Amino acid sequence: MKNGINQENIQKINRILVLRLLRATGTCSRADLARMSNLRPATITNIVNELKDMHLIKEEGIINVERGRNGIAVSLDKSYYRVIGIRISRKYFHIGIFDIEGNELESSTHRFYADEEAETAFLRVQEQIEILIKKASQEKVVAIGCAIPGPFFRNLEGSESEYPDWPDINIKKVLSERFNVYVFLEHDANAGALAYNWQMRVPSGKMLVYFSAAQGIGAGIVNNGKLILGGLGTAGEIGHMSIETDGLLCKCGNRGCLELYCSSHVLINNINKRIGMGDYSVLKPGFHLDDVKEAVSKGDRLAVSEYEKVCDYLGIGIANIINILNPDIVVIGDELARISSDIMRERIEKVCSRRLYELVWQHTNVCVVDKQIDISLQGAAIVAIEELFKEQIFFNWVDY
Ligand SMILES: [Zn+2]
């Protein structure tokens, strides 16, 4: 059991603490850092100088600190190190380059083709990484974060499984050997949850749950800034929570799984069934999810009623998770949320307020995100940054 902390480790932990404080606050003075970290001003000065030499922080000029005194402000140096984020889904991959705070500098989306071999598809991912690394030649690309769909199992040594659709490819091994950088994999909903936790500057001690509502339903749970993963890393697979005792049989072996009643795929199927039964809709066979969004915005009765049903089921799943975890913040995003955030919020509020203790529901801050952003892409980069900011990896990384 490792339980000793020697002098060298304390030094590393203190440097990491200063970096994390700067990442959370943006810009602050040395006096602020000393106060927030509880470290002596002389220690802070040493750490700031060391981190400046490593191109990790920079001075920002004079700012006013306590009691009218001036001090030199410092912040993370966002110009030197770079992280690549990749989000792999079943239909496409999305890739971008980020600074070490987690801000996107550039990104692009690439389709996978139905008849494409896994090796060919993965080579195309690598080509795009190569392009971004070449473009960033003035800066140093230090890590790649990759968000993949579930089920996502970690083995007992703590490393990750491969992308389930490419069982013969070890993404982590291939990328780290070819590009000589650290590579981290994470479930896409977990990556999204970390990104929202960072974007919303959720204070320490709070819990955020992000529900990714798309072709499947997944959740990422961040408590006090850290992901809740569970033994194998499958915590948050809420799509396979049973909501109908004798419901439909799911591929996971369970019956009545949530995602058999509310996913973008189910919504399209249900609308198609009703059109097949002769019900009127502006939607015509072969329609896509974007067409459903348009039909809902025009008030198409059939599309609205089927969308409401899906939102109600999602609300049941959310109420169950709120009962289990009592989170402070719930964020719902992805394909289904983008159809109509207003309808979704209204339906979820209705379902949850009926099913939860009033005090618990009142405490929960619910946010439905309808922006056309791929939060799991930024999340992939943030997964890599969070890992780099853990002491051991960090100091190997900067070769210090
Ligand atoms: Zn299932």
How would you summarize the topology of this molecule?
Layout (H helix, E strand, L loop, with lengths): L6 H19 L1 E3 H8 L3 H13 L3 E8 L5 E7 L4 E8 L3 E8 L4 E8 L6 H18 L4 E9 L22 H9 L2 E6 H12 L7 E7 L3 E7 L2 E2 L36 H13 L12 H9 L3 H25 L3 E5 L7 H15 L2 H6 L1 E4 L6 H14 L2 H7 L3
Parallel strand pairs: 4-7, 7-8, 9-12, 12-13
Antiparallel strand pairs: 1-3, 2-3, 4-5, 5-6, 9-10, 10-11
Bound molecules: zinc ion.
The site of zinc ion has 5 residues, from loops.
Overview of the molecule:
The chain is of the alpha/beta class and 400 residues long. The chain folds into three domains: 2-76, Winged helix-like DNA-binding domain superfamily/Winged helix DNA-binding domain (Arc Repressor Mutant, subunit A, Orthogonal Bundle), CATH 1.10.10.10; 81-191 and 377-397, Nucleotidyltransferase, domain 5 (2-Layer Sandwich), CATH 3.30.420; 199-372, ATPase, nucleotide binding domain (Nucleotidyltransferase, domain 5). Helix content is 42%, strand content 20%. A five-stranded mixed β-sheet has the order 6-5-4-7-8, with helices on both faces. A five-stranded mixed β-sheet has the order 11-10-9-12-13. The protein has a three-stranded antiparallel β-sheet with strand order 1-3-2. Strand 9 and strand 10 form a beta hairpin. Helix 6 crosses helix 12 (375-388) and helix 7 (264-276) runs antiparallel to helix 9. The chain is globular, with a radius of gyration of 23 Å.
